[in-house]
Amino acid sequence: MRTTVELPPELMRAMKSEAAARGETVKEFLTRAVSHELGTAESGRSRKRVKLPLVPATKSRKVDITNDDIEAIFAAEDAEKYRAQ
Asked: How far is CA 72 from the centre of its chain?
């Protein structure tokens, strides 16, 4: 299926560069990226969810973090990554 997506020029350049470095077409890169973001393998199978915590804590401490906090951390990491390029 075809669709049109408008991306910022710097993101498009970074995507093309990364796809070329991986030996992929932009279509392959986007398909893999969207599949990853949606949590499905390219074959359409769902990935298994991980039960947290992976390593149990020795003392019972609670961390007060929201989904918004996690999203802000990822956004800051992405911004840092693209600033470095």
From this structure: 13
Q: What is the rounded CA–CA span in Å between residue 56 and residue 49?
A: 17
Cα 17 from Cα 29, distance rounded (Å): 11
pLDDT in tens, 13-29: 999 999 999 999 999 99
**How is 18-50 classified by DSSP, letter by letter?**
HHHHHT--HHHHHHHHHHHHHTB-TTSPBPPPP
pTM of full prediction above 0.70: no
Q: Nearest 5°: phi and psi at 46?
A: -75, 145
- Go through the chain and tell me how many residues it has: 85
Identity of the residue numbered 11: L
Specify the amino acid at residue 48: K
CA separation for the pair 20, 37 (Å, rounded)? 20
